[in-house]
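Encode chain A's predicted structure.
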Amino acid sequence: LYVTLEPCCTWGRTPPCTDLILSSGVSRVVACVRDPNPRHSGRGLTLLRRKGLAVLEGVCADEGMKLIAPFSKWVRKRLPYVTLKLGISVDGKIADAQGSSRWITGPQARARVQELRRRVDAVLVGGRTVRIDNPTLLPRPSRGRKPWRIVLARHGLIPRASKLLSDGDVGQTLIAVSNQCPAKTLARLMESGALVVKLPEQNGHVALTPLLRSLARSGILHVLCEGGSEIAASMIRAHEVDEYLFFVSPCVLGGTESKSAVGGAGFLLCRNPLLEFESGEKVGRDLMIRAVPA
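Encoded structure for chain A:
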């Protein structure tokens, strides 16, 4: 039996994996990584060894750790793993001077984003993105996957006709508002069938960490943040981004009126959030760069 994560030996939502392994006739188990939970780490492998199974651990450990990164963070910090995705021009813009962003990146890059949506538990955007682009945030094709759609809308300004509230999957939509949201607007959003949560504010935006903790309590392990620029800036300032995915298009938008990928007040060069490039890959005409906080 080849597994990424060490088989569990305790009861949770499901029975212990080790019980099924022992009753199945498997005689050898090869595991990439131990359970990151210190209460369980190594116990499952030790139990299997005591029962006479051959156990080999640490095979492809680096790859295994990358695969279980969302689970590992959830177990250790009770927070979801956050991937920030940005489709940008080569000079770091996400929209032109007229606010148009369709399409900066090519079809192959957009198809890769659909793959990302199928991998995650939730896709997060800001209210402005919903008002301008009216996205569904669901993967196309779905292939059986339907992640939560999460919108940060401080004042609750989500149009009634937006796809997130009217496409038949409104039960998969969560709208995070602040105390600045009027009571009538709050009532309208709740009547739509969406899940609405009221959270405190931080620096004029819905506070991110309380939202992420709430999502983790609901069993959401991996969040894909698709912007816009103010949400990206808030995520970076709150140190909540675990992974950056830049889809860089070979186009130049330039100008002071075009939209920068990261909004807010910006960062001083002497203390900006430094990243470490981990990989680069050509995706159609575009370049996909994966980076993590340095």
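The two ends are 36 Å apart (CA to CA).
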